[in-house]
Amino acid sequence: QVQLVESGGGLVQAGGSLRLSCSASGSIFGITAMSWYRQAPGRELVARMFPGGSTNYGDSVKGRFTISRGNAQNTVYLQMNSLKPEDTGVYYCNMFGTWGQGTQVTVSS
User: What is the rounded CA–CA span in Å between residue 39 and residue 59?
Assistant: First the structure.
């Protein structure tokens, strides 16, 4: 089994930044696509990195968010800049076929 642990959420003012982290442990083999989703209220894709390194982003976060992968291939980051109140939600990472527990991001106006 694979376990994912997320961190980095919190409360920030509009225009601020946060960096989310998600680390995997357990039965990990190879390189996987890594994704961040946001639930508020429906679940939408925020960012994805494919095994080859290419990325795609949701339209609402393009130019503001950056997904990256740690050197150990079991960690994914989401750098969120120029945050807006509409970015508020629970952020979930997904990799190795597993979901993280979610981390709350709240952006105040």
Answer: 15
